[in-house]
Amino acid sequence: MLKEQIGKYRWVICTLLLFSTTINYMDRQVISYLKSFFCSPIENGGFGWSNSDFSYVTAFFTAFYAGITIVAGLIIDKIGTKLGLALSLITWSVFGIANAFAGGTVAIHIFVRSLFGLGEAGNFPASIKTVAEWFPKKERALATGIFNSGSNIGAMISALFVPWCLIYFGNTLGWKMAYIITGSAGFLWLIFWFWLYDTPSKQKRLSKPEYDYIHSDDEPAVGNVAAEEKKVAWGRLFSYKQTWSFFWGKFLTDGVWWFYLFWLPDYLIKQFGMTTEEVKWPSFIVYGIAIIGSVFGGSIPLFLINKGMQVYKARTTAMLMIALVPLLVLTTQYFGNVQRFGSSAMYLAVSVICIAAAAHQAWSANLFTTVSDMFPKKAVGSVTGIGAMAGGLGGVLVQLMAGKLTDMFKTNPQEAYLIMFVFCGLAYLTAWIIMKALVPRHKPITDI
User: Fold this and answer.
1) CATH topology of domain 9-199+236-438
2) From CA 130, how far away is CA 200, in angstroms rounded?
3) In the chain, where are the structural domains located?
4) Which one, of 93, 123, 92, lies nearest residue 20 by Cα?
5) What is the distance between the alpha carbons of residues 253 and 274, in angstroms, rounded to a whole number?
6) How far is CA 108 from each of CA 117, 333, 396, rounded to the nearest angstrom?
7) Which of 442, 286, 285, 429 is nearest to 363 (CA)?
8) pLDDT at residue 34 above 90?
């Protein structure tokens, strides 16, 4: 069957996921560009927060995000992706706007930001389940890489938009407007979601050849139809090594991305003496380069599969290749030494971080897809939720570690960031080794 005869509506669905993820990360990333203002002295108009105060806000957000993802995945498996993703976006948009009215009290910010995390938790379980429903296995990593690049686009938008808000409206009003404007964007997306999305079996715009192509490499059904439609015994998922493989892959590596998201502006300010306005362009470039990693990383398994390699082997081979790249980030502080490299130090350090961020997104695109490789579609949301919870827990620990280290080495923050970059560099290879030890070869789950 020629590809031009198949149809391309599945890529419309992928585009919807791209925009939801863009909005998700745009809303999430706002706070990282407000850190300098929040942590400035009260007499200068700021909130007087410490680095640890800021880390508590981001860590509580991450913790609530982690805690609810495990429930969100289960709910989405039961109510479906159309309603599940819509409810998630409405929740995070409402509480994203509510951040503007939290004032300068750390406890109130923690409370509102935590509720914001409850809503954001549904995006990835719903999106990964949608990809499993709408794409054949060989295209899932590419589709995931494309929609996951929205995390970089959202971060790029925030990198430019938040500093502009602070300048245009002034610090006192600007931080509030940054939350309100970004939080409102999701409601426009809802119009297109309800108009264009439905499951393949109900989607009238989907052609029969494309429907058949989507299901062309599904695992053979086991048992009768009633068994296939039976809801997943959620607690049983923890009895599978495949679940734990995904758990550890997320736990060890998600925190690295949280670190880049929330602490990159602070690193640039403290390492190179930049202002909040000046860090927007290096940050923009880092997240822009990461888009390439997300899409390219998703294409590597497809290339290997087309060369005749079995799907799971192609996936793990690609992930090993990708896991070696972040080792380069171990050199960040060497190249970021101003005394050694002068004005070039910032460009060299940012270049290294660009490569590391791209590698993370390439890794993430493939890691998410291992779930739909090994589990039936009815369990994908639940397992993705479990992994997202693990990633969130890892993110909590990384946030707290970054806050404590930057306070501990307040007079020499370069030492704090050296420790953080060592962790970031080693995380992926460690995760790959554990995942491969748990699931050495492809063994799809067919008995749930």
Assistant:
1) Growth Hormone; Chain: A; (1.20.1250)
2) 10
3) 9-199+236-438
4) 123
5) 28
6) 14, 36, 19
7) 429
8) yes
Side chain identity, residue 382: S
Nearest to 277 by CA among 168, 155, 416, 153: 168
Could you count the other beta carbons within 10 Å of the beta carbon of residue 185? 18
The owner of tokens 């995006």 is 123
- Cβ distance 245 to 431 under 8 Å? no
The pLDDT tens digits for 280-293 are 999 999 999 998 98
User: Among 16-25, 63-72, 416-425, which is the least confidently predicted range?
Assistant: 63-72
Q: Could you tell me if 133 and 81 are in contact, meaning their C-beta atoms sit under 8 angstroms apart?
A: yes
Closest C-alpha among 135, 145, 36 to residue 406:
36
Alpha-carbon span 303 to 307, nearest angstrom: 6
Tokens, residue 199: 């499951």
- Give the global pTM: 0.84
Q: How far apart are CA 393 and CA 405, in angstroms?
A: 18
Q: Greatest CA span in the chain, whole angstroms?
A: 70
Residue 137: predicted pLDDT: 87
The pLDDT value given to residue 6: 83
Cα Rg of the chain, angstroms: 21
Q: What is the pLDDT of residues 193-229, one digit of tens each?
A: 999 999 999 999 999 999 999 988 776 544 444 444 5
User: Residue 239, Cα to own-chain centre: how many angstroms?
Assistant: 26
pLDDT tens, residue by residue, 78-114: 899 999 999 999 999 999 999 999 988 999 999 999 9
User: In this predicted model, what pLDDT tens digit does every residue of 387-425 receive, in sequence order?
Assistant: 988 998 999 999 999 999 999 999 999 999 999 999 999
Residue 76 burial class via C-beta count within 10 angstroms: exposed 0-12, middle 13-18, buried 19 and up: buried
The pLDDT of residue 219 is: 60
* Mean pLDDT for all residues in the chain: 91
Q: What is the DSSP string of 363-404?
A: HHHHHHHHHHHHS-HHHHHHHHHHHHHHHHHHHHHHHHHHHH
In the DSSP assignment, the letter for residue 100 is: G
pLDDT value for 372: 84
| Pairwise CA distance, residues 323 & 85, whole Å | 30
Structure tokens at 443: 């063994």
Half-sphere exposure of 250 (CA within 13 A, CB side): 27
Does the pLDDT of residue 439 top 80, yes or no?
yes
